[in-house]
Amino acid sequence: MTRLEEQDWGKTPEGAVVKQFTLTNGNGMVARLTSYGAILAELRVPDQHGKSGNVVLGFDSLESYLKGHPFFGAIAGRVANRIARAEFTLDGQRYTLAANNGPNHLHGGKRGFDKVVWEAKPLPSARREASVQLTYLSSDGEEGYPGNLRATVTYTLTDDNDLRLDYTATTDKATPVNLTNHTYFNLAGAGDILGHELTLAADHYTPVDDLLIPTGEIASVKNTPLDFTQPTLIGARIAQLKPRPGGYDHNFVLRTGPQDERRVKRTASPLTPALSLLRGGGEGGNTLALAARVREPKSGRVLEVHTTEPGVQLYTGNFLDGSLSCSGGFSCAQHSGFCLETQHFPDAVHHPSFPSIILRPGQIYKTTTVFKFST
Question: What predicted TM-score, i.e. pTM, was given to this entire model?
Answer without folding.
Answer: 0.93
